[in-house]
C-alpha cells in the first residue's frame, strides 16, 4: 500500500497531517456536503454537536466541530482535537479488539483458546467450548445483556453475574450481538496479560500511538471539555465524564464492552494506524498479517471484533466491500476502508437531552450520508466515478424524522432520587 510522502514524516503523537482534498484524489465541493448533512441532524434536534474527521491516503481532508457540547450558547463549541466523547461500543474495537490483536501477535491469545482454561470461573453448560474467536465474533451463545446495574450491588457481584450467565445457544452456532462477550474477553485479556484492561490499553495502545486524549475513567480536569450524555438516567443525576452504559458502570467504569472516552483526533491516529496495517509514525503496533486476519469477514457481517460495512450502522452504500467499522450507542462511529485508504469518524452525544423522539433514526441517516459523501468525494476510483452524485441525501428526504418540538419529549417533572452522592464525579455532573 502506498502512503503519502507527507504522512511518512509524521511522528508518534503527532495528529494525522491535514492536506487539501485534491492532493489525495478527492473533491472539496463534495466533501463540503458533510457540513450540510451534520448541521441538518443538529437542527433537527438529534444532538447538540458533533465532531467529524475524514482522512485518506495518510492525511486528514475534513476536520470540523459542529455545534456545542450541550444545548445552550454557554456550552463550549465542539473541537475535534479537544472535545472528549463517551465512545460507547467503539470501546469493543479500539481497545478490546486491539488488545486481543497485540496478545495474538505475541502468541499469548490464540483464537482457538478455550476461555474457561484462563477463566475457570466462567462456568455453566457449554462454556467449556467457548473460544476467543467466539467472543470476538459474537458467536459465544451469550445473550445480548443482563440488567446487572439493577441486580448487583458492587463490581465484584456484577462480574460474577456475567461469568455465570447461561448461554442461549451452542457456541459457534448463532451470531448474536452481545455486551457480555466483550466483558468476558476483557477479563480474559486481563488474566493473560497480568494487568487491568485500562492499564493494558493505555500502556500498549494509546501511549505508543500518542493518543493522549483517550482513556477509561477520564480525570475531573477534563470535565469542561467532555460532552455530557444522558440527563435523566436511572442513576438519578446527569452524566458527564461517567460511562453511559449501565453495565460498564456497574463494573466500575472499565469494561470490554464500553467505558472508553476520547477525541476524534485521537481516533484519527488509531484509524490511520489500521489503514497502515498496524503501524503509525514509525511505530509498529500490530503485525500486518494480524490486521488482515482480524478485519476479514468471518461470520454474518462480523470479523474478529469489527463489523463489515453492509449499509448498516451508518456505513452508507458506497464504501468498499472490505470496509470495517463499529458504532456506539451514544452517537459515535468509525469506518475504515482499506482498499481506498479512507476513514470516516463521527462523534456525537445524541443521547444528551435530544429535542426529538427519533434521535437514533436521525443519527443513523447522518452517519449514512456522511459515509456516502466521503466515498463519493473520491475522484480517482473508477467504480465510484460511475455513480452519479445524489441530488438528495437521507437528511433531505427525512422519511422517518419527527417535527422539531420539545413537546414530544417526556421528561420527569422532578429529578429522580437516587444515589447521586455515591458518584465520585457527582460534583462535576451538574
From TrEMBL:
Query: What is the protein name for this chain?
Result: Serine hydrolase
The UniProt entry, under InterPro entries, shows: Beta-lactam-related (IPR001466), Beta-lactam/transpept-like (IPR012338), Diverse_Enzym_Activities (IPR050789)
Organism, by scientific name, is: Pseudogemmatithrix spongiicola
Alphabetized Pfam families for the sequence:
Beta-lactamase
Q: Where is this region: Disordered?
A: 410-430
List each copy of the Beta-lactamase-related domain by range: 34-357
One Gene Ontology term of the molecular function aspect = hydrolase activity
Q: Which residues form a coiled coil?
A: none
Write the record's keywords in alphabetical order, separated by commas: Hydrolase
Amino acid at each position: 500500500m502506498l502512503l503519502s510522502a507527507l504522512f511518512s514524516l509524521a511522528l508518534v503523537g503527532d495528529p494525522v497531517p491535514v492536506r487539501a482534498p485534491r492532493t489525495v484524489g478527492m473533491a472539496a465541493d463534495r466533501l463540503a456536503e458533510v457540513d450540510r448533512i451534520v448541521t441538518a441532524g443538529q437542527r433537527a434536534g438529534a444532538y447538540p454537536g458533533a465532531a467529524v474527521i475524514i482522512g485518506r491516503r495518510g492525511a486528514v481532508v475534513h476536520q470540523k466541530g459542529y455545534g456545542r457540547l450541550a444545548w445552550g450558547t454557554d456550552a463550549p463549541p465542539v473541537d475535534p482535537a479537544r472535545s472528549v466523547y463517551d465512545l460507547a461500543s467503539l470501546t469493543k474495537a479500539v481497545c478490546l479488539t486491539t488488545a486481543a490483536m497485540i496478545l495474538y501477535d505475541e502468541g499469548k491469545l490464540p483464537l482457538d483458546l478455550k476461555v474457561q482454561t484462563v477463566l475457570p470461573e466462567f462456568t455453566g453448560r457449554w462454556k467449556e467450548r467457548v473460544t476467543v474467536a467466539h467472543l470476538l465474533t459474537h458467536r459465544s451463545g451469550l445473550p445480548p445483556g443482563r440488567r446487572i446495574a439493577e441486580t448487583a450491588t458492587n463490581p465484584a457481584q456484577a462480574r460474577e453475574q456475567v461469568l455465570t450467565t447461561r448461554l442461549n445457544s451452542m457456541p459457534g452456532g448463532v451470531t448474536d450481538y452481545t455486551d457480555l462477550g466483550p466483558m468476558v474477553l476483557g477479563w480474559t485479556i486481563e488474566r493473560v496479560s497480568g494487568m487491568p484492561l485500562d492499564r493494558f490499553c493505555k500502556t500498549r495502545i494509546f501511549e505508543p500511538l500518542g493518543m493522549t486524549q483517550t482513556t477509561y475513567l477520564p480525570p475531573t480536569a477534563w470535565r469542561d471539555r467532555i460532552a455530557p450524555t444522558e440527563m435523566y438516567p436511572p442513576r438519578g443525576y446527569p452524566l458527564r465524564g461517567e460511562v453511559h452504559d449501565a453495565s460498564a458502570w456497574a463494573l466500575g467504569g472499565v469494561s470490554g464492552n464500553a467505558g472508553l472516552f476520547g477525541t476524534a483526533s485521537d481516533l484519527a491516529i488509531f484509524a490511520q494506524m489500521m489503514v497502515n496495517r498496524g503501524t503509525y509514525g514509525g511505530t509498529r503496533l500490530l503485525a500486518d498479517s494480524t490486521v488482515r486476519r482480524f478485519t476479514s469477514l468471518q461470520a454474518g457481517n462480523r470479523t474478529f471484533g469489527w463489523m463489515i460495512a453492509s449499509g448498516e450502522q451508518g456505513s452508507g452504500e458506497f464504501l468498499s466491500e472490505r470496509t470495517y467499522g463499529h458504532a456506539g450507542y451514544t452517537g459515535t462511529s468509525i469506518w475504515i476502508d482499506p482498499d481506498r485508504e479512507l476513514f470516516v469518524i463521527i462523534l456525537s452525544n445524541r443521547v444528551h437531552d435530544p429535542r426529538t423522539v427519533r434521535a437514533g433514526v436521525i443519527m443513523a441517516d447522518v452517519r449514512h450520508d456522511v459515509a456516502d459523501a466521503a466515498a463519493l468525494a473520491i475522484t480517482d476510483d473508477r467504480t465510484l466515478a460511475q455513480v452519479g452524485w445524489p441530488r438528495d441525501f437521507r437528511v433531505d428526504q427525512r422519511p422517518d424524522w419527527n417535527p422539531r418540538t420539545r413537546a414530544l419529549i417526556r421528561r420527569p417533572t422532578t429529578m429522580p432520587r437516587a444515589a447521586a452522592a455515591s458518584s465520585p464525579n457527582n460534583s462535576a455532573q451538574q
